[in-house]
Amino acid sequence: MKTRDELRSMVIAIDGPAGAGKSTVARAVARRLGLRYLDTGAMYRAVTLWVLRNGVSLTDERAVSAAARHVVDILDLALAPDHPAVRLDGVDVTDAVRGPEVTQAVSAVSAVPEVRSVLVGRQRELIGDGGIVVEGRDIGTTVWPTAAVKIFLTADSRVRAARRHADTVAARGTTDVDDVHDDLRRRDQLDQSRAASPLTAAADAVVLDSTDLDVDAVLDRILSLVAERLGSGGDPTSPSDAGLDRTVNPSPATP
Fold this sequence. Notes:
One of its GO terms (biological process) is nucleobase-containing small molecule interconversion. This is Cytidylate kinase. Keywords: ATP-binding, Cytoplasm, Kinase, Nucleotide-binding, Transferase. The protein has 255 residues and is of the alpha/beta class. Helix content is 51%, strand content 13%. It has 11 helices and 8 strands. Helix 3 crosses helix 4 and helix 8 packs across helix 9 (177-193).
């Protein structure tokens, strides 16, 4: 069926700042459409984790770049939306790459131009022939500017901080929401001002502000955009449109 073939080759790019809900939404979209899922941020976090564990100075761009070249050779990503595991040299670091030390340092590492060049090359290899939902900060502008659907997901910084704070409390205990907000603002500034692939919406991206929306509302909007791109007024997850199982639903949580 033509629609199914088009969907299986489609690239859906979801960009946006930290705490906007990209991971929750991107995984939900991939799950509903039966597509692969790539979190490019996890790749930068993997490099950052290796840098921190091996005593590499964050200000030594040459050493950080060398670390990135090494990490891409030992990095393994599971592209299933339900189990997006990250492994370095065979060791599962899925939780470790989300640690607070990595979160504090990842913007500095990702600002190094050669790090971005190395990882963008690997990201393009993983995207391959499509059939994938890709989240990050420069997918629609740099990594895959010909993506069929481009979303720039954003939200008020205070709302993003509250969401991130809730995640942090659940994972690691109490923390101060004002500290989380300050950290998000710092990361926004670093991401938007870096020389290589700064955070910005692609000219042809659809900007979705999730400040007052839950996951289901954002998901429905993106699925509608996919249906429009496929030239169908129906649900792209419908068996009549794409031959896919539409029974999988994300839990109703705030992105």
